[in-house]
Design goal:
Elements (H helix, E strand, L loop, with lengths): L20 H13 L26 H12 L10 H10 L3 E3 L11 E6 L14 E6 L2 E6 L3 E3 L13 E4 L6
Antiparallel strand pairs: 1-6, 2-3, 2-6, 3-4, 4-5
């Protein structure tokens, strides 16, 4: 898997990636404009697939994979599947943060995972999920909405999430 890491610094000795936040939001806007829906298991047929032309539905991990590839201008290839994406963050040494940190408007792009082991027993619906969080707003593909933004409250499934920093802001 391709991964262009940002060099570490004394203040930030863990891995991070160079993400173009504007490109990430642009990709989300293209999906919203194309009225891309959510369907569990739906993936873009290729990393350069065009929303609305090449696909009309996408799940959370499919969206995360293609959106991150787009926002890094092809520099990052994340695996598919939210559990695999979680393991990818661990393997590459991304810094794990608190759920509360995702409420900050600090320009740090985070990725949050709800793992099956942390879901409510017998819960109907979300058992696994992945979402980016930028300035206290998610960037994700979620049920009944498809690609969208929502407020990060730190409640519900968010309270049980594992949050990692993908980018950093050096002081």
């Amino acid at each position: 898997m391709t991964l262009k890491l940002v060099p570490s610094s004394p203040a930030y000795p863990w891995a991070s990636v160079a993400v173009d936040d504007d490109a990430l939001l642009d990709y989300l806007a293209k999906c919203v404009a194309a009225k891309i829906g959510y369907r569990l298991g739906a993936k873009a047929p290729a990393l350069n697939a065009r929303p609305g032309e090449d696909f009309t539905t996408i799940d959370c991990s499919g969206f995360a994979r293609v959106a991150l590839h787009y926002a890094t201008h092809g520099g990052v290839l994340m695996p598919d599947g939210s559990a695999n994406q979680y393991e990818w963050c661990v393997k590459h040494g991304m810094k794990q943060l608190s759920v509360e940190s995702a409420k900050l408007c600090d320009g740090v792009l985070r990725v949050a995972f709800l793992l099956e082991r942390d879901a409510d027993p017998g819960a109907v619906g979300v058992q696994r999920h992945v979402a980016f969080v930028l300035d206290a707003q998610t960037i994700e593909s979620c049920g009944r909405r498809g690609p969208c933004r929502r407020e990060w409250t730190g409640e519900g499934w968010q309270a049980k999430s594992h949050v990692f920093a993908l980018t950093r802001r050096d002081a």
